[in-house]
């Protein structure tokens, strides 16, 4: 029999291990790029644990034999090395398809300086990360695409420290995304890891953007954290001669409000300003652009003027390495293709991509669609799921809210209207989203429209709660045409701007064989025809404010199993996995060229 105390420890132990929110990371450490950091990227030792016995063996204790008769059945010494950042699946052939546990270890040196605080910051770990420092549980985080950090100021020792991260990319029924999704489940410490130093009292977060509908008024806030939070705050924009001074309130928060004559950010002129945020004890530097985004009737207005959004969907994958994208050079490859296609926006599907993507898109003049991984099979009624949605929403907005390129928060993709609690959960999330940030548009992507007799019936009541009607439709691929594309009729549930957020079909690059009017031969001609028909159909769409093909480039998806044409790749790319242009590329590029930048 276990003693009651032991039972209590047992319960506590499992509660900590199984409840990723038990030791929630501090939600924000804004703009670490502008701070003193030491990169923990590089080679990490790794123990592959496909049967998940590492918890039972307590790997984080790094036990060593003490007596002659002792042996320990794991060790980081002699273990393989994995690159961080990077997915683990593509680094060792034997774990290509692993959806399970890998333990990572890194030794780092710590030299604590008085009056400083230190954090271990992870850009992202897919999917659950459980972190230990010197044999002690530090914290855990669920969600594969947003940053988190843990403070180690008083927990690390001067000299060498051992950091161990258990990474588990097993799909969860109540995860975000859930069990089913059409992309490769890359596990691992997939983004940068940094040891970040801040002053004792520091600028934890800030929000500096134009007030909704105003092209000259900045409205935002600065949040301090630490022992001395009653401080003077300055926000400076040297190029505009701005030196706004204010004081924090009792909670360390200061309201920011000033006006100027900004050169507004736009795809044609992606102007960013150096912005310096200072407290008495801290200072950070950012590059911030200013623009407004709103809808008026059936149009989307950027800086008060109607804009037609020419987009492309992108997954966070570098097809040339057939691995998770994580670096600036990966971002450059993907976004240069989007520019060449003639895009003015990119939909970063279906989860928040790494920060390099968002920042580079901003510099290149690409508007960004940021999305939560609330994808298809989400169990909205399962306890805990809506809390996870809210946490991820906050993490996404926390990271990207100062990026003016981000014009829309997409809080879900193709969820099923028949799932219990789906409407309530998404409506509630949209309200929370707007309460945190009312300066951007909000959408939820839907694909449950009816289509018969050549009538597209867009009738999901959810649209009433969002700024834009975003719909995915695969007419010509999953759904055969029901008449001439140019004769399509529409019924719209709400008189709002419409973005066709996905359309397309598959083609294997250089496949021209077999009847080119039959889908089953994956020919470029078949895909090309879909694009021609879709463009003809776009002209019938009332309120059309933008289009966005699925997808820029072929990407890995193991459910795509045709051995000749797919081989584990979704072939809807306009580019092949080697970056070759398919015929449909030119059709869309010409269409984009034919649309003037301004409506
Ligand atoms: C969709 C999904 C996207 C898929 C795509 C497809 O509707 O939103 O994630 O991958 O269809 O290829 O079928």
From TrEMBL:
<dbReference type="InterPro" id="IPR051913">
    <property type="entry name" value="GH2_Domain-Containing"/>
</dbReference>
<dbReference type="InterPro" id="IPR008979">
    <property type="entry name" value="Galactose-bd-like_sf"/>
</dbReference>
<comment type="similarity">
    <text>Belongs to the glycosyl hydrolase 2 family.</text>
</comment>
<dbReference type="InterPro" id="IPR006103">
    <property type="entry name" value="Glyco_hydro_2_cat"/>
</dbReference>
<dbReference type="InterPro" id="IPR006102">
    <property type="entry name" value="Ig-like_GH2"/>
</dbReference>
<feature type="domain" description="Glycoside hydrolase family 2 catalytic">
    <location>
        <begin position="294"/>
        <end position="567"/>
    </location>
</feature>
<keyword id="KW-0326">Glycosidase</keyword>
<dbReference type="InterPro" id="IPR006101">
    <property type="entry name" value="Glyco_hydro_2"/>
</dbReference>
<dbReference type="InterPro" id="IPR017853">
    <property type="entry name" value="GH"/>
</dbReference>
<protein>
    <submittedName>
        <fullName>Glycoside hydrolase family 2</fullName>
    </submittedName>
</protein>
<dbReference type="GO" id="GO:0005975">
    <property type="term" value="P:carbohydrate metabolic process"/>
</dbReference>
<dbReference type="InterPro" id="IPR013783">
    <property type="entry name" value="Ig-like_fold"/>
</dbReference>
<dbReference type="Pfam" id="PF02836">
    <property type="entry name" value="Glyco_hydro_2_C"/>
</dbReference>
<dbReference type="InterPro" id="IPR036156">
    <property type="entry name" value="Beta-gal/glucu_dom_sf"/>
</dbReference>
<dbReference type="GO" id="GO:0004553">
    <property type="term" value="F:hydrolase activity, hydrolyzing O-glycosyl compounds"/>
</dbReference>
<feature type="domain" description="Glycosyl hydrolases family 2 sugar binding">
    <location>
        <begin position="38"/>
        <end position="199"/>
    </location>
</feature>
<dbReference type="InterPro" id="IPR006104">
    <property type="entry name" value="Glyco_hydro_2_N"/>
</dbReference>
<dbReference type="Pfam" id="PF00703">
    <property type="entry name" value="Glyco_hydro_2"/>
</dbReference>
<dbReference type="Pfam" id="PF02837">
    <property type="entry name" value="Glyco_hydro_2_N"/>
</dbReference>
<keyword id="KW-0378">Hydrolase</keyword>
<feature type="domain" description="Glycoside hydrolase family 2 immunoglobulin-like beta-sandwich">
    <location>
        <begin position="202"/>
        <end position="291"/>
    </location>
</feature>
């Amino acid at each position: 029999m276990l003693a009651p105390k032991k039972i209590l420890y047992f319960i506590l132990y499992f509660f900590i291990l199984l409840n990723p929110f038990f030791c929630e990371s501090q939600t924000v450490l804004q703009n670490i790029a502008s701070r003193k950091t030491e990169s923990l990227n590089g080679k990490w030792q790794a123990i592959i644990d496909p049967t998940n016995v590492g918890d039972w063996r307590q790997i984080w204790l790094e036990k060593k034999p003490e007596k002659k008769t002792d042996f320990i059945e794991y060790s980081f010494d002699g273990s393989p090395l994995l690159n961080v950042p990077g997915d683990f699946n593509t680094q060792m052939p034997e774990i290509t398809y692993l959806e399970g546990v890998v333990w990572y270890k890194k030794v780092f040196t710590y030299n604590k300086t008085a009056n400083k605080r230190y954090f271990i910051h992870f850009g992202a770990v897919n999917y659950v990360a459980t972190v230990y420092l010197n044999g002690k549980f530090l914290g855990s985080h669920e969600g594969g695409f947003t940053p988190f950090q843990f403070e180690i100021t008083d927990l690390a020792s001067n000299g060498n420290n051992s950091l161990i991260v258990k990474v588990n990319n097993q799909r969860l029924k109540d995860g975000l995304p859930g069990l089913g999704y059409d992309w490769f489940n890359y596990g691992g410490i997939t983004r940068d890891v940094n040891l970040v130093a801040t002053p004792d009292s520091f600028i934890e977060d800030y929000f500096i953007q134009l007030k909704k509908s105003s092209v000259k008024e900045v409205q935002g806030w600065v949040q301090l954290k630490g022992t001395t939070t009653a401080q003077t705050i300055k926000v400076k924009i040297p190029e505009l001669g701005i030196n706004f001074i204010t004081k924090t309130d009792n909670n360390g928060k200061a309201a920011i409000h000033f006006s100027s004559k900004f050169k507004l950010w736009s795809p044609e002129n992606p102007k960013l300003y150096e912005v310096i945020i200072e407290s008495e004890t801290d200072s950070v530097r950012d590059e911030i652009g200013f623009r407004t985004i709103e809808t008026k009737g059936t149009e989307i207005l950027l800086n008060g003027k109607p804009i037609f959004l020419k987009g492309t969907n992108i997954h966070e994958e570098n097809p040339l390495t057939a691995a998770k994208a994580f670096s600036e050079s990966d971002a450059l490859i993907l976004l240069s293709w989007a520019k060449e296609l003639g895009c003015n926006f990119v939909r970063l599907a279906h989860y928040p991509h790494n920060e390099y993507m968002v920042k580079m898109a901003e510099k290149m003049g690409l508007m960004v669609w940021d999305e939560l991984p609330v994808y298809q099979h989400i169990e909205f009624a399962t306890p805990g799921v809506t809390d996870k949605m809210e946490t991820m929403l906050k993490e996404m907005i926390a990271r990207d809210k100062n990026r003016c390129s981000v014009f829309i928060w997409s809080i879900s993709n193709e969820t099923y209207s028949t799932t219990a609690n789906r409407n309530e959960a998404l409506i509630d999330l949209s309200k929370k989203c707007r309460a945190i940030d009312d300066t951007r548009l909000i959408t939820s992507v839907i694909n449950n429209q009816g289509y018969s007799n050549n009538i597209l019936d867009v009738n999901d009541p959810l649209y009433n709660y969002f700024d834009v009607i975003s719909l995915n439709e695969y007419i010509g691929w999953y759904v055969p045409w029901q008449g001439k594309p140019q004769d399509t009729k529409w019924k719209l549930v709400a008189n709002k701007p419409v973005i066709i957020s996905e359309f397309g079909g598959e083609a294997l690059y250089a496949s021209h064989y077999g009847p080119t009017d039959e889908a089953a031969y994956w020919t470029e001609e078949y895909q090309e025809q879909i694009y021609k028909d879709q463009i003809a159909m776009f002209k019938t769409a009332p309120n059309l404010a933008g289009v966005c093909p699925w997808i820029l480039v072929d990407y890995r998806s193991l459910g795509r199993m045709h051995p000749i044409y797919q081989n584990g790749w979704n072939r809807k790319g306009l580019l092949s996995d080697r970056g070759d242009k398919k015929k449909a590329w030119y059709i869309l590029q010409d269409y984009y060229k034919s649309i003037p930048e301004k409506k």
